[in-house]
Amino acid sequence: MKKLLVALFVLAGAFQLCAETWKGLVEENWYSGPKLTEKDLAGKVVLIDKWGVRCPPCRALLPKMQKLYDSLKKRKNFVFIASHCQGRNNEAVAKLVKENNLTFPIYENVGLAANEPTSRYIPFMYVVDARGNVVYSGNNYEKVMIALAKAFVGEKGFQSLVPMLSLDDKNPYAPLIKQAVIGRPIAPIIKRLEAEVKKAEKASAPQAVKDKAAMATQIIEAIEEGKKAVRSEIDAKMLENPFEAISLANLYVKSFPTEKDAIRLKEKIPELKKAARAWYAEQKAKRAAEKAAEKNKDK
Description:
alpha/beta
């Protein structure tokens, strides 16, 4: 029996190695950007954006996806693919690529080979973590950001406000963005970045100062996106697990103590604590009922 189990385990492992995980990554489906193989996606966090040239919301989203791609392309554990799904259209896609300066990989109908999330509407995005699990599917950009952040940090939680911003250690802003984490005051960081932007407003400002200001602006925008993502995460946790919502809300208030939404959130925390206690009692009663049902089933 032991030998049989070992044989089955080896066979299953061999099947997993040979099984196709992704479909459509072939030369004839490629439009533009870096060419990829299935090996390039193995063990990576993958974002798929299903879009079409005849879809106005899809076209409007392309510049935003380019900014996301630019901020993440240096990560060795991330792959982004824009998967066109309105029929092969070389001319129309090439026109959009040129108009928007798109540099990310664009293919026709690329996606998971099995159990791919689907939708009747586009744009439609889904995030696959490094273990091959779909951790988000839908058309909410902020939720995509949350899913990517969680996929990058595993189960440790949402820590950085700019998890999608990757800078070389030599970059002068690299130490600064490491400080942009939930629970630490963010105002001093924003103040320093805004000062850099102001320096570039002078007509005599050298190009190096302007380049530094452009990077500072990018970080400010990334912090704002991260802030919105955390607020969305708090709202989601209020329904899923109020205790986690309280913990994250307290950290958010510490990061943005003087902002109106943080002040309102702080006022809500006592109410959240009541909801958390009620939720815990409900979960406890549910577990007790399930345990009783199991005992009755065994009799």
